[in-house]
Design a protein that fits this description.
Number of strands: 18
Protein name: Aminopeptidase P family protein
Oligomer: single chain
Largest sheet: 6 strands, mixed
Strand order of the largest sheet: 4-3-2-1-5-6
CATH topology of the largest domain: Creatine Amidinohydrolase
Order of helices and strands: HHEHEEHEHEHEHHHEEEEEHHEEEEEEE
Number of helices: 11
GO molecular function: aminopeptidase activity; metal ion binding; metallopeptidase activity
Keywords: Aminopeptidase, Hydrolase, Metal-binding, Metalloprotease, Protease
InterPro entries: Creatin/AminoP/Spt16_N, Creatinase/aminopeptidase-like, Creatinase_N, Pept_M24, Peptidase_M24B, Peptidase_M24B_aminopep-P_CS
Domain Creatinase N-terminal: 38-171
CATH architecture of the largest domain: Alpha-Beta Complex
Shape: globular
Structural class: alpha+beta
Strand content: 15-25%
Length: 405
């Protein structure tokens, strides 16, 4: 077997798991005061936009504004926000005690029985609150049946997408949110470093993914929110192939994974070679790092999001890749927003002219796909400060030492 560089291989899952010491002493949950300020901002945006009420369903936006986490089902459960900043929860009667565990005894709840229409209840609630019902905003993550139910209960009401309120709040992260994401990303980068150490010829991608899940939990994070482990030619498939693969000498390795801390996401990709990198693998890896660096440098306050994507593509196209979304090249956008959802507003993609602003967080992952050969994705995230972009985790050092010396 060829010499493996800088901690690629040479250890075992048991040894790496035994070396993990969790420390969540610096993790602070989002405060009630911060949630209250979020609601006030949403109410202000509703007033500016002429929205008479906003219905949040079982989604990350419900959690963002209220702290209530619920699963999506066929029963309507959620919260109605008024332009005055009032919150009234709507839920099945039999779920009241469970909902109150989070929202408390003083919260306003409107309950519906199994044989009643929750949509009629929402219409009645709006009337009782003295809200006009010309224009109601509905959670963008709401299932169609909720929209359909509201439309039947309030046929003359205009139902609009609440993302003009929710995304406008959520895409600008507070220092408390940034700290939670920073913690999640530090954990995932360390898990990535340990995963590289357990590699050996013949190991299966499923075994590596199982280790990564255990390691995320050992550090005090959630289970892996997702995990892509690809070897060899399969690394050119952006979201990985189905089924098991087995590692061979000289394979490109691509691992993309994340976890959550207090429901805030990490999402980091590392690419490197098991064994000796060929000149071809080395040059493509360096090109990927250059494209990632160009995107970061382009991300300045006030610059349209699409210019960040364009900066990465310019590097790749100058090297003969693409153009556009053609492969060999970059077949997807350069980056996505991240927070309580792994992909959320806003996006680093052509056509998005929204200017970059403080508190926005993005993945930076201008992947190079060479179908039938290999792919390279380096993914780190940055957030915008008033002075410009700041990495959560710095770029991978080199193809030979992806986690540093």
């Amino acid at each position: 077997m060829a010499h493996h560089f800088n901690s690629i291989g040479g250890s075992t899952a048991a040894i790496q798991l035994a070396g993990i010491r969790p420390d969540l002493s610096d993790v602070l949950p989002i405060s009630a005061a911060e949630r209250s300020s979020r609601v006030n901002k949403a109410a202000m945006l509703m007033r500016l936009q002429g929205i008479d009420g906003m219905l949040l369903t079982a989604s990350t936006s419900l959690y963002y504004f209220t702290g209530l986490q619920w699963y999506q089902s066929e029963r309507l459960i959620g919260a109605l926000l008024t332009p005055e900043g009032q919150i009234v929860y709507v839920c099945p009667t039999f779920e009241e005690s469970k909902v109150r565990e989070t929202v408390g005894q003083s919260a306003q709840l409107r309950l519906w029985e199994e044989d009643e229409s929750p949509y009629q209840l929402v219409a009645q609630l709006l009337a009782d609150l003295g809200c006009a019902t010309q224009r109601i905003a509905l959670d963008e993550a709401a299932p169609f049946f909720v929209f359909d139910g509201l439309r039947s209960a309030m046929p003359v009401t205009s139902i609009v997408n609440a993302s003009t309120v929710t995304a406008e709040c959520r895409m600008h992260k507070s220092s408390a949110e940034l700290a939670l994401m920073q913690k999640a990303k530090i954990i995932t980068l360390e898990v990535q470093r340990r995963a590289a150490k357990i590699l050996h010829e013949g190991i299966s991608s499923l075994e590596v993914a199982a280790f990564i899940d255990q390691a995320h939990r050992a550090f005090g994070g959630s289970s892996s929110t997702f995990c892509i482990v690809s070897f060899g030619a399969a690394t050119a498939i952006p979201h990985g192939p189905d089924g098991a693969q087995y590692l061979r000498e000289g394979d490109m390795v691509l691992i993309d994974t994340g976890c959550k801390i207090q429901n805030y996401h990490s999402d980091i990709t590392r690419s490197y070679v098991f064994g000796q990198a060929t000149p071809r693998q080395r040059s493509i890896w360096e090109l990927e790092k250059s494209a990632q660096a160009a995107a970061f440098e382009a991300a300045q306050i006030g610059v349209p999001c699409e210019q960040v994507d364009a900066a990465a593509r310019k590097v790749l196209e100058a090297a003969g890749l693409g153009p556009g979304y053609e492969t060999p090249g970059l077949p997807h956008r350069t980056g996505h927003g991240i927070g309580l959802d792994i992909h959320e507003w806003t996006y680093l993609v052509k056509g998005n002219t929204r200017p970059l602003a403080a508190g926005m967080c993005f993945s930076n992952e201008p992947m190079i796909c060479i179908e039938g050969e290999f792919g390279v994705r380096l993914e780190d995230h940055f957030y915008m400060t008033e002075q410009g972009p700041k990495w959560f985790t710095g770029q991978s050092e080199s193809i030979d030492a992806p986690f540093g010396a």
